[in-house]
């Protein structure tokens, strides 16, 4: 069996560690976090050291994952881990449904009760969080976070680094650009350009951020 090191010991790190435990594929799980001196002994898994010391654990841990919400940092840390020689797993909670025809790049996480349907494609380091649904033929870019309870209709396209808030809905065939933020509970019924923040029902833009 393999050993798993998770970068980040916050709330998302705990949920990811429990998903990994539920897989039953890991002999040992440990975490890294810059607050390790405060956190070690407070969780069910050891918090060994700060993030910058990840390279010291390559010989002991075969695989490493990243548990941070910020998409830019998540992708940077995945690059760092790969460069250090870790294998980057895809973590799928056993209570999730992922179609055999779906494609998940390295570093993806699919949480409990989430669904990824036929021929959907998830980019590197993307998160399909608890109870979220990605329907058939969706194309999801790198570093996207689909938050708990969000629902995507079929053939939705999402660019890199976008964040879809809790409980939002996206109708079939919509295109969402890169670095977009969709507010919680929003209903997206038309295309959204890059770096926009949209909220409401139907979703309307309130700002354009920095890519």
What does this structure look like?
The chain is of the alpha/beta class. It folds into 2 domains: 3-89, Rossmann fold; 90-203, UDP N-Acetylglucosamine Acyltransferase, domain 1, CATH 2.160.10.10. It is 15% helix and 28% strand. It has an 8-stranded mixed sheet with strand order 4-7-10-13-16-19-21-22, covered by helices on one side. A 6-stranded parallel sheet has the order 5-8-11-14-17-20, with no helix packed on it. Strands 6-9-12-15-18 form a 5-stranded parallel sheet, with no helix packed on it. The radius of gyration is 17 Å and the shape is globular. The termini are far apart. The model has no long low-confidence stretch (mean pLDDT 95).
Q: Could you give a quick summary of the protein structure above?
A:
The chain has two domains: 3-89, 3-Layer(aba) Sandwich (Rossmann fold), CATH 3.40.50; 90-203, 3 Solenoid (UDP N-Acetylglucosamine Acyltransferase, domain 1). 15% of the residues lie in helices and 28% in strands. It has helices at 11-23, 36-39, 71-84; strands at 2-7, 26-32, 63-66, 91-92, 97-98, 103-104, 109-110, 115-116, 121-122, 127-128, 133-134, 139-140, 145-146, 151-152, 157-158, 163-164, 169-170, 175-176, 181-182, 187-188, 196-199, 204-208.
Give the total of domains.
2
- CATH topology of the largest domain, by name, is UDP N-Acetylglucosamine Acyltransferase, domain 1
| Strand tally | 22
CATH class of the largest domain: Mainly Beta
Give helix % range: 10-25%
> If classified by CATH, what would the architecture of the largest domain be?
3 Solenoid
Backbone CA Rg: 17 Å
Please report which band the strand proportion falls in: under 5%, 5-15%, 15-25%, 25-35%, 35-45% or over 45%. 25-35%
Indicate the overall shape. globular
User: CATH superfamily of the largest domain, called what?
Assistant: Hexapeptide repeat proteins
Which strand order do you get reading across the main beta sheet?
4-7-10-13-16-19-21-22
């Amino acid at each position: 069996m393999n050993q798993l090191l998770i970068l980040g010991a916050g709330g998302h790190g705990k949920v990811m560690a429990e998903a990994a435990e539920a897989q039953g594929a890991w002999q040992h799980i440990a975490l890294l976090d810059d607050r390790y001196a405060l956190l070690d002994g407070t969780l069910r898994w050891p918090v060994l050291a700060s993030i910058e010391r990840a390279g010291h654990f390559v010989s002991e841990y075969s695989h490493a994952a990243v548990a941070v919400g910020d998409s830019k940092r998540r992708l940077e840390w995945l690059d760092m881990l790969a460069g250090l020689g870790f294998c980057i797993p895809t973590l799928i909670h056993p209570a999730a449904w992922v179609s055999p025809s779906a494609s998940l790049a390295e570093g993806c996480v699919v949480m409990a009760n989430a669904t990824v349907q036929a021929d959907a494609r998830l980019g590197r380091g993307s998160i399909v969080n608890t109870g979220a649904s990605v329907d058939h033929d969706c194309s999801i870019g790198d570093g996207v976070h689909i938050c708990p309870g969000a629902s995507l209709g079929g053939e939705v396209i999402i660019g890199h680094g976008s964040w879809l808030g809790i409980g939002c809905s996206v109708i079939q065939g919509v295109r969402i650009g890169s670095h977009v933020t969709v507010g919680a509970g929003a209903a997206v019924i038309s295309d959204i350009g890059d770096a926009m923040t949209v909220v409401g029902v139907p979703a309307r833009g309130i700002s354009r951020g920095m890519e």
